[in-house]
Structure formats: C-alpha cells, structure tokens
Write a structure and sequence with these properties.
Strand content: 25-35%
Order of helices and strands: HHHEEEEE
Distance between the termini: 33 Å
Number of strands: 5
Oligomer: single chain
Number of helices: 3
Largest sheet: 5 strands, antiparallel
C-alpha cells in the first residue's frame, strides 16, 4: 500500500515530466532529491516551484467577453481568471481573487 507522501511524490514526478510547473534555477536540486529515499526533500523543493499545486481548467466562452474565452486557475492562494482567445491563447487581462483562509 502506498503512503500519502508516496502518492504526492509520484504525482509531482509525473507533473515535472509533463512540465506543469516552472523549475528554472531548481533543476539540480530536483535531480538530486528525485529518489524514493528522499521523497520528503523532493516535495519541499517542488512546493517552491511556480505553478505547483495550481489546477488549470480548459478555456471556455464567457458572457462578459464579447469575442473571447477565459481560463480559470485555482490554487491555495487565489483564483485567477485569464482572458484568452477563442483558441485558448492567454491574453494580458487577468483578474485575481485572493483566498484568505481564516484560522
């Protein structure tokens, strides 16, 4: 049976291979810690990479955009709505909504 850490590690490795987040400046550290015995260290590095733990939904039409679509992204910190073309290319307009978690 796989542990929670093992599942998160496996998903992070797959996301890394699929270039789902930026690793600029962290390549050596990621490579050094990308072993089954250093899963916790690997996860600490991955969590500092921009784009990690962001869910991006496919672009879709939006009533507020006359000739365009939007892309919705959700992370622990915020929800972002990116303007994009009808083919899904991001444009410069972005609306961010902070998610403040009360403790």
């Amino acid at each position: 049976m796989m542990s929670v850490l093992g599942l998160l590690y496996q998903e992070a490795v797959e996301d890394l291979a699929a270039n789902k987040y930026e690793t600029i400046g962290k390549e050596i550290e990621l490579k050094r810690t990308k072993h089954a015995t250093t899963q916790r260290d690997f996860m600490k590095v991955v969590q500092t990479c921009p784009g990690h733990n962001i869910v991006t939904f496919p672009h879709c039409p939006c009533d507020s955009r006359k000739d365009g679509h939007v892309i919705l992204e959700v992370s622990f910190e915020k929800i972002s709505i990116h303007a994009c073309s009808t083919s899904g290319e991001k444009e410069s307009q972005v609306k961010n909504f902070s998610l403040a978690v009360g403790v």
